[in-house]
Amino acid sequence: MTTPVRVLLVDDEHTYIDALAKVLGRRGMTVRTAYDGHAAVEAAHAETFDVIVLDLKMPRMDGVATLEAIRSRDAHTPVLLLSAHAELDSAREAMCRGATDYLLKPCPVDDLVTAIEDAHERAGYANDLARRTRVE
I want to staple 83 with a disulfide (CB 3.0 to 4.6 A). Which of 15, 56, 88, 115 is the partner? Predict the structure, then answer.
């Protein structure tokens, strides 16, 4: 039996993120939610997640600032950014600051699940490679 993927969902739209958490939970993932960037940073520093799904546009602390704060202490956990706005500049900035992927809302659930699973799998390969390199 495989261990469920631990996902942190971050979005200021409570109804959207709560519904998405239920759907991902039914898909076998362990999900925690945060409704703003500050809560996301606290959660990411207090717990270990396999993947973080982060909204780009949030009040007080946007997704890029949240990503930077998370990356300051964790350079490896995949972070997928979600945005309802197709802005090339913000996508480029997020990717340069360490985002793993950039998805547009509304993102079909199957596409999001695939992106989460792919990011988790790639991170696992990277961790295995890093371990083998240290051993050799």
Answer: 56
CA dihedral (32, 45, 78, 39) positive or negative: positive
**Do the domain assignments include residue 54?**
yes
Q: What is the CATH number of the domain that holds 27?
A: 3.40.50.2300
How many structural domains does the chain have? Answer: 1
Q: Determine, yes or no, domain membership for 1.
A: no
Whether the predicted pLDDT of 69 surpasses 90: yes
The predicted model gives 52-77 an average pLDDT of: 92
Three-state SS string over the chain comes to CCCCCEEEEECCCHHHHHHHHHHHHHCCCEEEEECCHHHHHHHHHHCCCCEEEEECCCCCCCHHHHHHHHHCCCCCCCEEEEECCCCHHHHHHHHHCCCCEEEECCCCHHHHHHHHHHHHHHHHHHHHHHHHHHHC
Q: Does 11 reside within a domain?
A: yes
Return d(Cα 113, Cα 40) in angstroms, integer: 20
pTM: predicted TM-score of the whole model, two decimal places: 0.89
